[in-house]
Write a structure and sequence with these properties.
single chain, mainly alpha, Growth Hormone, Chain: A, 16 helices, globular
């Protein structure tokens, strides 16, 4: 493969990462307008507009290994992008809340196909020494996609609630790129490889459960921030005006993107200690948010965002390096399922915790501290694979520092 071909392939794969976070969060700014358009719909139905895709992403990830055994990468990507784009845009065509939720389910199925490919294809086409950097880029693209989609949906919702769903037309960019540049290879197979029976979902879970549970804990921890920040601020922190809440949350997404871009450097510096970076930053972030005020809310939001941006590529890259060429059909569907299951379950966990925490100040942040510590304890059990070129690069830098000193 030529240098130009590898570059266009990388851009095509990374373009998928721009779309995955948009599954539910893209139309979040329009929920208020949508609620007004469906005055008879229950509150739960309105909330499901955001959470419905996460549920179907999880369910689709469970059957993804079977799909990957029967279809090539390009076929799966284009099918997933088709469901994502059509289901996303079509939701704005219906005046029946049930039909709208059905379209949201299609978006979830589409992302359930796209998500394992957006990360697994990096492991399939690129060597281990490149995967840490590319996983960081993928995480950064996730966050950038979320920022762009949220801001764009907010602008479109000012026109009409139906227009907010046009944000899913961004999927057409990936359709063009993947149609032109993505090969239709079978995942886990290459020319000259001996055909092997693919492991079952249960077998894959037994092999990669540390990364899967780690991703579930990470996302359960992180999602406490976007799901509760606005309500916690309005209830307890009068110093921060309501008009700036969305700006501060977008700021956290930008910091998360920076965390993804810097992940390669973090891995090169911290090496085996990289596994504790995200849980420690989550804990410190929730502590700052609990204290509140301008310093607490800005520093806490930044720490939580950076932890998410750096933590996701760590688990993805470690699982990918352990699985090798089969990552897209073994560990990635499970890690992806855990990511979205964590998003879906996090509000329910918080509801249970609020009963115990009662009227304590910032209960969501207190619960976030607890989940962060659980995530830290679990992270200590995860073995860290440091690619040799990465390890050598870190040693060379240390030697240069000794020489210069």
């Amino acid at each position: 493969m030529s240098k130009q071909a590898r570059k266009t392939l990388m851009v095509s794969i990374l373009s998928l990462s721009l779309l995955t976070v948009m599954a539910g969060a893209a139309v979040a700014p329009a929920l208020g307008v949508i609620k007004e358009a469906f005055p008879g719909a229950p509150q739960l139905a309105i909330q499901l507009i955001i959470s419905m895709p996460a549920l179907f992403i999880f369910l689709t990830n469970m059957v993804f290994p079977r799909l990957s055994a029967k279809f090539g990468a390009k076929t799966l990507v284009l099918a997933g992008l088709g469901l994502y784009t059509v289901g996303g845009v079509a939701a704005g065509l219906f005046s029946n809340i049930f039909l709208l939720l059905c379209m949201r389910a299609l978006v979830g199925v589409g992302v359930g196909i796209i998500m394992p490919l957006s990360t697994g294809l990096l492991a399939y086409y690129y060597p281990p020494e490149a995967q840490s950097k590319l996983s960081g880029y993928s995480s950064a693209m996730n966050q950038i996609g979320g920022v762009v989609a949220t801001l764009l949906a907010g602008v479109l919702s000012a026109v009409n609630w139906r227009a907010s769903f046009l944000v899913y037309l961004l999927g057409l960019v990936s359709v063009v790129l993947c149609f032109l540049f993505l090969p239709n290879d079978r995942l886990g197979e290459r020319k000259g490889d001996v055909a092997q029976e693919k492991p079952s979902v249960l077998q894959s879970f037994k092999t990669y459960y540390k990364y899967v549970v780690g991703m579930f804990l990470l996302m359960s921890c992180f999602f406490l921030y976007p799901a509760n920040y606005a309500m916690e601020t309005l209830a307890f922190d009068t110093m921060v005006p309501a008009s700036l809440i969305s700006v501060i949350m977008a700021f956290a997404d930008v910091i998360a993107a920076i965390g993804g871009f810097l992940f390669f450097r973090i891995m090169k510096t911290a090496k085996s200690l990289t596994k504790v970076v995200a849980p420690l930053l989550f804990f410190l972030g929730f502590v700052c948010l609990w204290f509140g005020g301008w310093v607490g809310t800005l520093l806490g939001s930044a720490l939580v965002g950076f932890a998410n941006g750096a933590g996701v590529p760590f688990l993805i890259s470690q699982g990918s390096m352990k699985a090798g060429k089969t990552a897209a059909s073994t560990v990635m569907p499970l890690v992806s399922a855990a990511l979205y299951l964590g998003q879906f379950v996090s509000p329910f966990l918080m509801s249970g915790a609020s009963v115990i925490l009662g009227d304590l100040r910032h209960p969501a942040y207190l619960f976030g501290m607890v989940v962060s510590l659980l995530f830290l304890l679990w992270s200590l059990t995860i073995p860290v694979i440091v690619p040799k070129p990465l390890e050598m690069a870190a040693e060379l830098e240390e030697q240069k520092k000794l020489i210069n000193s």
